[in-house]
Structures are given as C-alpha cells and as structure tokens.
Design goal:
This protein is mainly alpha-helical and 185 residues long. It is built from 6 helices and no strands. The protein has helices at residues 2-58, 65-80, 84-105, 109-113, 115-150, 154-161. Helix 1 runs antiparallel to helix 2 (65-80) and helix 2 runs antiparallel to helix 3.
Length: 185
Amino acid sequence: MIVVLVIVAIALALVLWFFGAYNGLVRMRQEVKSAWSQIDVQLKRRHDLIPNLVEAVKGYMGHERQTLENVIKARQQAIDASALKDKIQAENFLTQTLRSLFAVSERYPDLKANQNVMQLQEELTSTENRISFARQFYNDQTMRLNTAIESVPTNLVAGMTGFAKSEFFEIEDTAHRAAPAVKFS
C-alpha cells in the first residue's frame, strides 16, 4: 500500500512539474510576443514620422532626390514586411537610409535651421531611442525563452509540446557593430 502511495505521489509530482514547466514556457512566449508588440508600436510611430520629415526636407534638397526616394522605399519595405526575419532586415535597412538622410541634411544650413525639420528630427531621434530600448527588452525576453527551451529539464517539455526558439532582433550589417573611430586633428 505504501509503495502504491509513493508511486502515485511521484507521478502526481511529475504531472504538476510538467504543467508548471509548460505554463512557464507559455508565459515566456507571451512575454516575447508582448515585447515584440512594443517594438511594433515604436516602428509604427517611426513609419508615421518619416513621410512628414521627407516632405519638410523636399523643398530644401531638390537635387538630393535619390536619398529621399531611398528613405521612402525603405519605409515601404518595412511596412510591407510580414515575417519577423523580413521585418528585422527591412528595419535595419530603414535605419541605414535614415542615417544617410540625416547626413545629407547636415550639408544644408537653412534646413538645419528650419523649426519643423528640427522638431521632426528630434521626434524621430526620440523614437529611435525608444526602438532601441524596446529591441533590448525583446532580446532579453527572447533569451529567457530560448534558454528555457534549451535547458534541462524544460527542454523535454518544450520538445514534447512544440515550443520553438524565437529570433533575436540583431544588427545584420557588421559595420554598424564596430566602434566608431575617433580622430583628433
């Protein structure tokens, strides 16, 4: 009789552990989804600001049309991307084109003095900072989930229930990872 009770107690403990591990994985997956939605909110804000900035800059930079067209094209690609990996690539490309727009705008003193352009650049810079923080939070949540999926013993539960690792939001262009060179004349 005692042996049966011990076996039942062990079986019950294993079942409870399984459900606890499964629920923990579900919670982590939801946290990753929530973190991505925060990135998505900031990306939408950035996508909404870009046309206003481009319109404000157009009058000053008529012969820099290629830069403006690249920004518009990159924005549309970012909006159209649906898969997570495609969104990450498109957003990285959009970030690069925005940097080129800001670099070109530095050559126009009248443009730099325009209050509307200055305000839009400030809002876009603030949004970029928010995106950066949201990316970091998303990557932290992704790391937690991926670690749980790969760690013993939760990897057994993850494997049996079909949990998949999530992708990190990484910079793909290695040139952006390098530290900038500082030179003093």
